[in-house]
Amino acid sequence: MQVPKRHLPVVGLLGLVVIAAAGGGIYYYEYVSPPNTSCGVASHRLFFMTAIIFELGGFQITNGAYLNQSTAPAFNATAGPSLVGVKHQNYTAPSDHKTINAIVGDTITLYIYGVNSTDPRQFAGIAGHGFTISPSVNGQFGTGTIPLGKWYTVTFTVTQAGTYAYFCTIPCSNGHGSMTGSMVVSCG
Questions:
Q1: How many other C-beta atoms lie within 10 A of the C-beta of residue 145?
Q2: pLDDT digits (tens, 9 = 90+) for 101-147
Q3: Per residue in 134-188, pLDDT tens?
Q4: Chain Cα centroid distance, residue 78
Q5: CATH superfamily, region 44-186
Q6: Structural domain boundaries of the chain?
């Protein structure tokens, strides 16, 4: 069995004397909060999605792009977003087609088309699909309605890392509770 050795305070004092004699300095840092780490360069990300009853796919990300200009594309609820003359860089959406990836500071614009299904599993008489994100992203928006056969858009900026759930808020079919997706916000 080893017996722990006790070093006298003299050893520490001798070390300080040697450092001072060598012309060195002693620095002590104490962080009240951790040092600032870079979260990467924030950008404006566009996501193009469809909303249809869960039995036929639910929310699906069909495309995504980085916006390379300060103004968002023109938008019309019937025609959707117009990318004519818009500088953007396409990128591939996540393979699960339901996850929105972003970094802290990103501005996100979602363009969601409400598909009016002829499938008998869609509840008759619904006005559209509901849409919300939980927890609320900076309290920037509540719940919206994606009209069937029309486009819906929402823009927000993410300021906090974490995983958020987005989901339908209007019962649209028996699979309504599974009409979900996620947004993963990281620090670069």
A1: 16
A2: 999 999 999 999 999 888 999 999 998 999 999 887 755 666 789 99
A3: 887 755 666 789 999 999 999 998 888 999 999 999 999 999 999 999 999 998 6
A4: 27
A5: Cupredoxins -  blue copper proteins (2.60.40.420)
A6: 44-186
Buried/exposed code over 65-101 (b: 16+ C-beta within 10 A; e: otherwise)? bebeeeebbeeeeeebbeeeebebeeeebeeeebebb
Cα-Cα-Cα-Cα torsion 154, 157, 163, 164, nearest 10 degrees, comes to -30
pTM: 0.75
The two tokens of residue 158 are: 């993410």
The burial class, CB within 10 Å (0-12 / 13-18 / 19+), for 137 is buried
Partnered with residue 125 across adjacent β-strands are none
